[in-house]
Design a protein that fits this description.
Helix content is about 40%, strand content about 20%. It is built from 17 helices and 18 strands. It has a nine-stranded mixed sheet, with helices on both faces. Helix 1 packs parallel to helix 2 and helix 3 crosses helix 5.
């Protein structure tokens, strides 16, 4: 346990995230939280604000008179952003001195680090100044600054094709899966228990589609993404029904990309792939996560490595020329040799996109909820893992085109999407950079309205429970309607 006391609220998230980055396995508690006095702390942190300065001090024992480490900096209390950055820098310096650790992303704890250089590129600032700003302000490593600039420049070029004000994207969530993976915390339901509800779910979804089509009739639909869950848990007839409904409801003449997350090979059939191809789906995912049979068993994925290969080759035979594959670094029981073996298999398949995730242990994931059951499985993710993935991407003639981070991420690293020339996923960039409104339909979907020249965002959330979503679909639609009226959406 590490305990923290501060006399000013509003910075708890940033403080907590930074301390956890240095001590990922340690509980961190603020004064006032139930667990604050549950056990003697490893050490205690005091952060005291005044109008002109902030003092941070580390103590071996709470209430001890003399600190073993402290810093004081001047602040302008009227400038919250600068105050936050200065506070995080002194905390970083102290934690680095105390642990002798260096974080590759420095003080950055948000999930969208590319927003910083992208905004500065759009403002016309020189590359050298942007890189120096990231080093001085956030203590990012040279390696991560270089990666950020590379991705930001590519994103800027790809997004220049879009009309932010008059364009929008569409997300449709299918919250069913063949089974729930060990690491997963997304809203998903095992298909075996919900098979009889799928058609009712599609009926509710069609109501949301009708509402959206009417409200956005004068806008340009740029990208469609059907995700989940696992969309290919739908039967071929149900997939056909859903995509026909989309094509009949929306003007697709401005569409740049149509993605379906086919996902797990145990949900994919030739008939389903033929439906997707017939309806001109331009991009699909076949996601192995690993090419190690033993790990797949541990994860609860009821398929083999051979099934991944067979499904991939089938998709190529049917004619798909833009296939993404997801991998996760830091899976239970895997070491760097397993990761390198997986990457060799991926190189032989030669996909068009490769998305490399660093395992993030979410609270609702079984791997976290029942961690005692998996304590004997080593989970490691290091710079060597990420470099191995990057080398494989280079071998496949791919370059990084989007990046995001998550809380509790193994190795304090990142998720990176790589793509061959002309194969980058535009929707993936949009969901991270918040440059365009994304209408999100389905259980657990979160619509994001982007307006005022991309400077403001507002959300409208759907309930996560499938049965409640079906029963209260009219309420879900009204939520969107009310939000649009509230922000004067037109």
């Amino acid at each position: 346990m590490i305990t923290i006391r501060t006399n000013q609220s509003g910075f708890e998230y940033d403080i907590h995230s930074l301390v956890k980055s240095f001590y990922p396995a340690m509980d961190v508690a603020f004064e006032g939280e139930k667990k604050f006095l549950e056990e003697p702390p490893l050490f205690h942190i005091e952060i005291i604000f005044s109008d002109k300065e902030v003092e941070a001090a580390f103590y071996h024992v709470m209430g001890q008179e003399n600190s073993f480490l402290n810093r004081t900096i001047e602040i302008d209390s009227s400038d919250r952003k600068e105050t936050k950055n200065r506070l995080k820098r002194i905390l970083y310096e102290m934690l680095q001195e105390h642990t002798n650790k260096v974080l590759p992303w420095g003080t950055l704890s948000g999930i969208r680090p590319i927003k910083i250089p992208l905004k500065m590129i759009e403002e016309g600032q020189p590359e050298k100044e942007i890189m120096q700003y990231m080093k001085d302000t956030y203590y990012c490593s040279d390696e991560k600054i270089k990666l950020s600039m590379q991705i930001a420049k590519r994103e800027h070029a790809l997004l220049s094709r879009l009309d932010y004000e008059n364009g929008y994207s569409l997300y449709i969530g299918i919250p069913f899966c063949p089974s729930t993976c060990l690491y997963c915390s997304f809203t998903s339901y095992p298909l075996g228990m919900w098979k009889d509800k799928v058609d009712l779910y599609l009926e509710a979804l069609e109501k949301e589609i009708d509402f959206t089509a009417v409200k956005f009739a004068k806008k340009k639909l740029n990208t469609i993404y059907i995700g989940g869950g696992t969309p290919t848990t739908l039967t071929s007839a149900q997939l056909d029904r859903l995509i026909r409904k989309i094509k009949c409801s929306f003007d697709l003449s401005y569409l740049l990309e149509f993605t379906v997350e086919a996902g797990r090979p145990d949900s994919i059939t030739k008939e389903k792939l033929e439906v997707l191809k017939r309806h001109a789906v331009s991009r699909i995912s076949i996601n192995p996560q690993t090419m190690q049979d033993e790990t797949l068993k541990v994860l609860g994925r009821n398929h083999t490595v051979q099934a991944i290969k067979d499904t991939y080759h089938l998709a190529r035979e049917i004619g798909f020329d833009n296939i993404n594959m997801d991998l996760i670094m830091g899976l239970p029981g895997e070491d760097i040799l397993d990761v390198r073996a997986t990457l060799e298999e991926i190189k032989l398949l030669n996909p068009d996109n490769l998305t490399v995730h660093s395992l993030a242990l979410k609270r609702a994931a079984r791997l976290n909820m029942f961690k005692d059951e998996y304590k004997d499985y080593k989970m490691e993710n290091t710079k060597e893992h990420i470099e191995a993935a990057d080398e494989a991407a280079v071998y496949l003639d791919m370059t990084p085109y989007y990046l995001y981070r998550q809380k509790n991420m193994a190795g304090n690293l990142e998720n990176v999407g790589y793509a061959k020339e002309g194969k980058a996923g535009i929707y993936n960039i949009l969901i991270m950079e918040e440059k365009q409104t994304i209408m999100a339909l389905g259980a657990g979907a979160s619509t994001k309205f982007v307006f005022d020249h991309t400077t403001r965002t507002e959300r409208a959330e759907n309930v996560k429970d499938v049965a409640i979503y079906i029963d209260r679909i009219d309420e879900m639609i009204k939520r969107k309607q009310d939000k649009m009226e509230e922000i004067s959406w037109h």
